[in-house]
Amino acid sequence: MNLKKYIFIFIIGVLSFSNLYSQQELTPVSDDVYFFLKRMQVAGVIPDYNSSLLPLSRKQVANYLNQINNSSSVSSSDREVLKGYLLDYSFELKRNPEALSISKNGLSGIFNNDKNKYIYYSYDSTNSLFLNGNLNFSQRIGNGDSLGNRKITLFEPGLKIRGTLRNILGYYLRVSNGAKLNGDSNDVNFAAFTDYKLWSNLKFRIDKTNFDSFEGYLRYSAPDDWISVWIGREQINQGFGYNDKMFYSSNTVPFDQINLSIIYDKLNYSFTFGSLKGDSLGRDIPDKIIASHRLNLNLFKTFKIGIFESVISTQTPFSVTYINPLSFLTSADLNSGDNTTKNNANLGFDFEYNPVKNVAVQGTLLIDDLNLKTITKNDKSYNDNKFAFQFGVFWNNAFGIEKLAMTSEYTRLDPFVYSHRSNKSTYTNWSLPLGHKVSPNSDDISIDLNYTFSKGLSLIAGFNFIRHGAGVIIDSTTNRIVTNYGGDINFGEGDSKNLNKNVFLQGYRINYNNFRVAINYEPVKQLFLNLEAKYLLADYIYISKKLKDFYFRGNLNFVF
Is the pTM of this model over 0.90? Predict the structure, then answer.
């Protein structure tokens, strides 16, 4: 029997094995269901839930919601919130056709609060297809010393199609094409500067009028979910951070990738190989890739640990060294035989512990560079060592108030963390951080309060205080870098040339105080109103100057 016959028999066997209905599409990391699942995990209702590796499939999310629904320890107020999510996932849970409706069935269909609305849907015992339309209106206002007086209105219509074939192959495509309704070129620059989605849209930044975007993928999952693989463009998050993630965050746009996941007992392994948008101080880098591994281990119901590693390369984008899912990337990079300063390798460890009901703590360590020979040195040779760490607390039902969650976190990044001695290999996509949002040579204290009135209404208030060391000193005679204080993620050049040891917060000191209030409201099912206001205070200590800015963003999003 030849190889083709073996492959054919394997495919037929996999397809015929699956006889339980399931939806293999991913639930986007921006969906608020993850925050609800996190609260239920910390409350001890679903202790096996792990938030450090997202997104999950709709099937996996539905399974967690089913566990919550069957639990006797869920409060009556949380059970009211749960009802909304059970409706969202009613098809995955019960394949209930009564929970589906066609939006074109008059106003009664569009404004129905008891059904999930679609332009079109179709399903049978193993296949499904759902088609949604989307209309989004956005108003952004800026006022202050840095932003000036800015106002812009954007309109973005789009379509979304998703579904599953033969219970094992999920598919998803979201496309949109937006336009500026009012505002001048300065307002366009303001919108791009304050929104990473628009920042990464060259069409919008160049012609100052139109923009477009998409996400899409194909995802295969074995019938019992022990292995899954997907290829396409979708946002991923990795790390236990509550207010921001250290490894993969949502601080940049999704990138094209191949993602492999294997689940065995208490182990969950993920491999990612992706293509990033690179540049070096404005010069385009056509071939920038990232390869990463993450291994999660649920040691006990109350204790979880994770190991992460990644390599970013612009020199050998298709090397088998980096597409091997079972390897030690850091070692492979160090032993590649090439000049390893060209590639940017990171290694990280994190954990989460639930000491008591409704409280969780997490800790994260990121090792950007490590040289054991110089780690005790007090001179410039120590600069081979760069670390970042984070500690956080998640308090559910904070202060004894049901449905109020408080998250607090301290994050510190050494100089040059995430950046690299080759500016081509920074830990960025579209010059935006793949990890935590704060710049290198900074620390951040953040506190968020999130109160859930109901599934369709929540209020968030947040504050964070950032200390930052910035600046580069250039020799006026030779025009060469004398000192780079390591505060710019996109400019690591000069690190190896520094005359002195890198010192945390040394440089041009700046303090930031940021206040944020957000309201998320769903007055009618699939009609979303999101309002966010920020007050930003920047204290440029080194020049005794303070700048104040106010930012407002309102979104009205209708999914039908």
Answer: yes
